[in-house]
Amino acid sequence: xxxxxRTILGRIDGVIVLLFFFxxxxxxxxxxxxxxDTNTKNYYTYKKTVEKLDLYNxxxxxxxxxxxxxLDNDKISFINQAFEKELIFLKNNPLTKxxxxxxxxxxEEMIEKYDQxxxxxxxxxxxxxxxxxxxxxxxxxxxxxxxxxxxxxxxERLLTEILFKIGQVFLDTGIDLIEIEKSLENMLIYKxxxxxxxxxxxxxxxxxxxxxxxKNVLQKHEDLNxxxxxxALNNLLEKEYLKNKREEEIIGVVFFIFAFIILxxxxxxxxxxxxxxxxxxxxxxxxxxxxLPNRTEFERYIHELIEMDKKEFILFFIxxxxxxxxxxxxGHDIGDRMLVVLAMRIGKVLGQKNFLARIGGDEFVAxxxxxxxxxxxxxxxxxxxxxPIHINDYCLNTTASIGIAKYPQDGDxxxxxxxxxxxxxxxxxxxxxxxxxxxxxxxxxxxERRVELEQELVHALKKKEFLLYFQxxxxxxxxxxxxxxxxxxxxxxxxxxxSPEEFISVAEDTGLIVELGYYIFAEACATYVKxxxxxxxxxxxxINISSVQLRQLDAFERFKTIIEQTGIDAKHIxxxxxxxxxMEYTTEKVTILDDLRAIGCKISIDDFGTGYSxxxxxxxxxxxxxxxxxxxxxxxLNNQHDAEVSKAIIVLSQSLGYKVIxxxxxxxxxxxxxxxxxCDMGQGYFFAKPMKSNxxxxxxxxxxxxxx
Amino acid sequence: xxxxxxxxxxxxxxxxVLFCAELIPLPFDxxxxxxxxxxxxxxxxxxxxxxxxxxxxxxCHNLKHNGADTVSYSKGIKNQKGxxxxxxxxxxxxxxxxxxxxxxxxxxxxxxxxxxNPVEMGHSIxxxxxxxxxxxxxxxxxxxxxxDGITENNLADALTEFEKTLxxxxxxFDKYLRGDKNAISKxxxxxxxxxxxxxxxxxxxxxxxxxNLFNKFGIYGDIGSKEKGRYAxxxxxxxxxxxxxxxxRNVAITAPYMHDGRTESLAEAVNFMVxxxxxxxxxxxxxxxxxxxxxxxxxxxxxxxxxxxxxN
Lengths: 708, 312
Prior knowledge:
The structure holds 2 protein chains of 2 kinds. In chain A, strands 8-9-11-12-13-14-15-16 form an 8-stranded mixed barrel, surrounded by 5 helices. A 5-stranded mixed β-sheet of chain A has the order 2-3-1-6-7, with helices on both faces. A two-stranded antiparallel ribbon of chain A has the order 4-5. Chain A has 24 helices and 16 strands. In chain A, strand 9 (about 480-490) and strand 10 form a beta hairpin. In chain A, about 65% of the residues lie in helices and about 10% in strands. In chain A, helix 6 (about 175-190) packs antiparallel against helix 7 (about 195-225). Chain B has helices at about 1-20, 35-45, 55-60, 105-110, 115, 125-135, 135-145, 150-165, 170-175, 185-195, 230-235, 265-280, 285-295, and strands spanning about 215, 240-245. In chain B, helix 2 crosses helix 8, helix 10 (about 185-195) crosses helix 13 (about 285-295) and helix 12 (about 265-280) crosses helix 13. In chain B, strands 1-2 form a two-stranded antiparallel sheet. The radius of gyration of chain B is 21 Å and the shape is globular.
């Protein structure tokens, strides 16, 4: 997981670098865009200013008309100020420098022309004031002179003529001012008649002077052409503005393309990272192999259930039987694939509503919310697990032991529940696997007992608390003793007498079985040699050896050493093994059984029939004897099935050349039946119970006498 | 003959339209920056701007009276005599140019000149600024208003802002223009009509009743002016004796008149104008009426000067 985290971090680092790169590009673009945009805005303002100047200029031009009204003087002053303001704005605008000499030259020309124009406007205003005032006064004089002239036609004609001509001047119809002067000289003849005529003359004179000046001003204004400069500036700006605008558009498009790419990039990166995160979180709470929730998730789930729901539920602790063996023998690859198949099968049985998690190698836990029909569910599960699994060329069979704990009866916190389910599972295993067990308080007691056993067992060997008993095996037809099985007893000074059923499994689990096994083996051999020395040779001493012990790499060497040390002839030794070991042995690349047989030892299969040995491969085994399990014998008289199986085992074993011993014969009828089935040998309380070494000596001597 | 009649009527109509236009009343308020106004006011009243610290702007522009002086030529530092009669600062903001010869295009252009004129306050701008910078109150005041503190531009700006507030609204004639027909006497109403009819209005027009254009002093006859007006600036023949037409607002209290203060009474001044500027004659009755019209142009003192105590 940390590796995945690291890759994600690595990717994020890469993303950040790339992102940084993009952001830098984008920022640069943005800044440039802003710059261009500001320029465009400035151009715009600049252009607007020039347009305003054009407008003001046109408004100022309206000053230069004949009927200019002094009413507009304030307005003209205002426009003048506005025009100047804009001119100063342009003059001080940084863009002016940017545009270069052409614009600066035009602007300077404009300013110069404007100054001239202002002069002209002022002159015009002045002259216009004078001329309009004169015209008005001339009209007044005209009336007075006419009144005073008393129908002097010549004066009236001259006045009318002059005023008409003045009118023409005023309306700019192209009259020559000299003509008016001529008429005026004719008028002067009558100045003695009315003093007003002299005033009239003087005013006309001033009027003509002013009109000439106005003409001059108008001509100058014509020549000034301020608008030409404004137009030139405007055109120049238009070009720059368009150029800049185009640049802005292009960069804008590029900017948005980049922004879009970055957006896409960010989105995809985000999605990727999110996916990775989900994966990580999935991995954190799920088992990579079976994709089931893992222990963490299980703990979280059960915690939630207990804290939030408080409804009752049932916890299954499912442990596959002998899975370790499959893992060890066929390899983890096969084991893993098997786990996947089993996880799927269990999950299918449990359905969606129930929770299944894998919390260890071959350990599963299930939480069942619906507490009804548990047995049905368990059976379904067991049969689902039991179905053969085909992987590669192997056809694998497995079973599971299931421990069951109920919430809240069997515990109200997750640890207790799990512990108790685990205990129940152990109990199921002890019951012989492929079964299930409900947690009971007794189980807890058993566990305590087991812990006690474990503690005591460690010291038992040193304390020499193990005693060997021997149970005779005899020929069913002759009732002659053919051998004896060495059975171990533990007389603990603390726990009292402990049965092998109890302590052997503990010894196997703790590994003490190895030393205990050698001890028993050595004791049994020594005892047999002792018997021989006393002149008794019963034939065989059968010694149980644990599969755990046989898996020790130096097992054969140690057995051989013990045999040599005790001086027993190996042919007297029969090693009893469990059916399970035999089955595993066939798949293991070990030769210990063959090695033992090679030095003379005999091999027998203990408790035959309880396991799942296939008769078909019995023939290839390196064994000599088969012991029918006492579970078949105990009910052989009443149970047809047991009888048939026993008979079949006997027939088959004999046909394969193995000797058959029936264990646990307790009655005469059982012995008789087995005898009828041609079973070779027997062992059991009916013939003899396990006894101490010296007891066996006397029993043997007694037996000899009886036969004889 | 029909054509003759038509042309004549047309031109008469035009001129009639021109003379029919009315004058415009002054507004009651102007938009200004109050902080700048207060600073400008302080500067206006402070002698710190004169070289020998004897004169302030107020020395020649009496804000408690007419915004000008009452003598033909005011005295600058060391008792030097000026060249022109002091024009009033009242309503100066509405003048199209400043000074008699209109050399300053705006109040701001005008504001610093009297400080530097050797016969007026006789200072120099760098020295005036130095003096201001030595006065901590000014440093503080300028800094709170202007980012760059005391500068030539900001000095002019503050003074200008103050001068903008020096308007004299509410003259009886303005009330008359706003509809109060009884605000001025019948004689004044008649005077206003004459003012228009005689052609005075052709030069004295607009919001300031003058201050809108230049004209030659003495169109109908040489009247012997020592100053040559705009000619001094432009050196153009046509600018000889051309001066700014002054505003007639508050004219009744701004004697003496003309750029050289040559006339003491209003009647005298009107008569002078009619003769030399309009080339006409005027009867005594008409003259009286025009004078009463002119007397109706005196407005209220600017609000801002109310708390100023006159010392000279």
